[in-house]
Amino acid sequence: METKVKINRSELSLVEGDITNEETDAIVNAANTRLMGGAGVDGAIHRAGGPSIMEECRKIGGCPIGQAVITTGGNLKARYVIHTVGPIYKDGNRGEAKLLKSAHLESLKLASARGLKSISFPAISTGVYGYPLGEAAGIALKTAIDYLKEHTDIELIRFVLFGDKAYNAFLEELKAIID
């Protein structure tokens, strides 16, 4: 399953799959503030990428919520991993939306600053951090689309979604935004 839309000269795509298999210039890791690996996407990226990613994360030391840092991709097909920290969802009234938008935006800015042409995102904060899937999808997609409207340097933003539920939530939000 894949859905593609054109934004300016760039492409935004949704695909159901495993982000560790992506061949984009960078993949985004839904990291924790200590950058010490964890469950879900974070654990999968560290397992697939090998110990060199963790070595770089240790040197960086940490990453605040809503910010992003970059390491090499280790054994991954992607050349880089952009580690960003999304918010833990409490009730939606504690700045979670602003922080989730910032996590996506800072990842995109970092990719642009490095001259990267393609980037793959997971559904940040929707796993153990408990962000409601539809709401998170809307924020992620709107941030990506707005970025592509103003920046033509990134040619592809792909959202790699684990499972039908995540894919369908993102697809529904994308249709609502572009229609």
Share of residues in helices: 25-40%
Q: Let me know the largest β-sheet.
A: 7 strands, mixed
| Percentage of β-strand residues | 15-25%
Strand order of the largest sheet: 1-2-7-6-3-5-4
Structural class: alpha/beta
Short descriptors:
globular; alpha/beta; 5 helices; Leucine Aminopeptidase, subunit E, domain 1; 179 residues; 7 strands; seven-stranded mixed beta sheet
Offer a quick outline of the entry:
The chain is α/β, with parallel strands linked by helices.
What does this structure look like?
The protein is of the alpha/beta class. The protein has one domain: 3-Layer(aba) Sandwich (Leucine Aminopeptidase, subunit E, domain 1), CATH 3.40.220.10. It is built from 5 helices and 7 strands. A 7-stranded mixed beta sheet has the order 1-2-7-6-3-5-4, with helices on both faces. Helix 3 runs parallel beside helix 4 and helix 4 packs across helix 5. The radius of gyration is 15 Å and the shape is globular. The mean pLDDT is 97.
